[in-house]
Amino acid sequence: MSGPSLEVRRSSASLWGEKTGMRRLPVVSKYIDTTTCIGCKACEVACQEWNDLGVVPTRQTGSYQTLPTLDAEFWNLIRFSERETSDGALAWLMRKDQCIHCEDPGCLVACPAPGAIVQYENGIVDVDPQKCIGCQLCLAGCPFNVPRFHKKTGKMAKCTLCVDRVHVGLEPACVKACPTGCLQFGTKLDMVAMGQARVEQLKENGFEQAALYDPPGVGGTGVVTVLAYGDHPEWYDLPRDPHVPLAVRLWKGVLRPFGMLAIFGTILGVIGHFMTHGPQKPGEPGEEGA
Amino acid sequence: MWPSAQAIVTARITEDVVVGDEVVRHRLASRVIHWAVAFFFLICLLSGLPIWTPVFGWMAGLLGGLSVCRVLHPWAGVLFFASALAMFQNWRREMRLEPKDREWLGPGALRRLGFLALERDPEVGKYNGGQKLFFYAVWLGAVGLLASGLVLWWPTSFSQPIRLAGILLHDVTFILFAVAIVLHIYLGTAAEPGTFRSMTRGTVSAAWARLHHPRWYRDVKEGVSD
Q1: Cα–chain-centroid distance for residue B83?
Q2: How far is B109 from chain A (nearest CA, A)?
Q3: Rounded CA separation B46/B77 (Å)
Q4: How far is B181 from chain A (nearest CA, A)?
Q5: Does residue A243 have a pLDDT over 80?
Q6: ipTM for the assembly
Q7: pLDDT at B111 over 90
Q8: Which of A76, A91, B9, B34 would be A47's cystine partner, CB 3.0–4.6 Å?
Q9: Among partner residues B115, B164, B172, which is closest to A278 by beta-carbon distance?
Q10: Rounded to whole angstroms, how far apart are CA atoms B81 and B35?
Q11: Share above pLDDT 70 across residues of chain A, in percent, rounded to a whole number
Q12: Which of A14, A153, A270 is the mutation pick for testing B, counting most B CBs within 10 A?
């Protein structure tokens, strides 16, 4: 966690939950245009450099992809996939996989450690390793399979949207490094407008199915992605309609007051039973041969 | 009130025998197993409740903080399951459900809750139908908590649907378990005086045995094993 606590909007396992900070900040967002990404991986390198992440041995899986999936020491992964489009053409797709900073973060909802996952006023979702207990329950809350357990620290790690840079007025390291301009950074409103304009442009150029990925099921995200094949988000390893899982909602929602009621209700019940029916001692009426 | 020295010595190795005006109900091994289960359940409870909700966050301090709880909880859970397994083995034979247990659990069970309107069943053996049901509920709960607990312990080894099912199963099983334990503690202490000592020093009074487990008392007196 690199941001100041005055800017915390929401924190995990907080009894009061919302609005724990004082300052108001504009909500920021990262814009990713998968159609102008050339797969150069400059963003991967910039992320490793800026966040001082360790070396992760790469694996050859018959693709340009650096790793099969995100890692505790690798928060920014360009995913490569090859698909056959409806007209039989090849689509070679590249998508920047990372934490997309949900407006309603499932990881934060699932986290049991107070303050271990926070959402700042500017929308960035961040892990505080001092408070993280490494239980990995955030993984069950995340519809995008992003948080990773770091074996060395015993804590969770993921993209911070370079909150330390953003806090001092800089763009995230990956955006700084991108040579094609397919990564942009600004307010959420500006980035959505830019994304919508790009989608219109793509549609005019024959990509009728182009769309901006900003899923409403999680309240929108702090990373918006332009997809040429917006009707097939799964081609980019993105869920079609992501939500904070119902099981997590039940567990953190109705089951806690229900459980509390059941347990304390039973305690009150036995006290009531004792007061109205008393103890059952040997040598009282009804006993066989008493 | 206090058991005789002879009764305590007898209760080290044997049970279901009459010593003076006392009856040995639980031999030492059974009692040790029971308290092992209870101890590890308590550790799991104290380390699990602060993870369940921040309302019980203060409990984490009793064990050294939430990070300690996170490490302690799964290991205490394994020991809880291991002792529950020993408990299941220890009592399995005596807890076999019989036709008369079904009768005990029938419509009379609710009426029996009202202690004053005593409705005794002279055919209750060493364990009544309710105790047997509780025994199986604890065993089922221990299996459910272990299975779901393992998923929560190594979440990356399981798929997302299994992880989510594990969370729900662990949660619901715990709530039901906690409710059952409250009833168990009440019945073993305040509700039925003379019961608790059967789990500490191993013996009960003959009067207690006649009241709560008449057939067991008759059998023990005649030297017939239950």
Answers
A1: 11
A2: 15
A3: 12
A4: 9
A5: yes
A6: 0.92
A7: no
A8: A76
A9: B115
A10: 13
A11: 93
A12: A270
Length of chain B in terms of residues written: 226
Q: Which helix (H) or strand (E) holds A9?
A: strand A8-11
Best residue in A255, A256, A271, A275 to probe B by mutation, most B CBs within 10 Å? A255
Q: State whether residue B50 is helix, strand or coil.
A: helix
Options 3.50.50.60, 3.30.420.40, 3.40.50.620, 3.30.70.20; which CATH number does A5-243 get?
3.30.70.20
Mutation target to probe the A interface, by most A beta carbons within 10 A, among B49, B51, B70 is B70
Nearest to A242 by CA among A81, A99, A106: A106
**pLDDT confidence bin for A3, thresholds 50/70/90:** low
pTM attached to this predicted model = 0.92
pLDDT tens for residues A104-153?
999 999 999 999 999 999 999 999 999 999 999 999 999 999 999 999 99
Sequence ranges of the domains in chain A: 5-243, 245-274
Hey, are the CB atoms on A266 and B179 less than 8 Å from each other?
A: yes
The single residue listed with the structure tokens 């018959």 is A62
B155 CB neighbours in chain A (<8 A) are: 136-137, 139-140
Rounded to whole angstroms, how far apart are CA atoms A284 and A36? 88
| Secondary structure class of A244 (helix, strand, coil) | coil
CB atoms within 10 A of CB A237: 15
Question: Hey, what long-range contacts does A77-86 have (CB within 8 A, 24 or more apart)?
Answer: A77/A44, A78/A37, A78/A39, A78/A41, A78/A43, A78/A44, A79/A236, A79/A237, A80/A39, A81/A235, A81/A236, A81/A237, A83/A229, A83/A232, A83/A235, A85/A229
Q: Is the pLDDT of residue A286 over 50?
A: no
**Which tokens hold the place of A21?**
């900070």
3-state SS, residue A21? coil
Half-sphere exposure (CA, 13 Å, Cβ side) for A201? 11
In the block, which residue shows the tokens 């798929």?
A: B159
Interface check A263 vs B, CB under 8 A: yes
Contact A242, B160 (CB under 8 A): no
pLDDT of residue A7: 82
Cβ–Cβ < 8 Å for A95, A70: no
Query: Which residues are paired to A224 by β-bridges?
Result: A31
* Residue corresponding to tokens 């019980």: B56
| CA separation for the pair A7, A1 (Å, rounded) | 12
Phi, psi dihedral angles at B100 (to 5 degrees): -70, -20
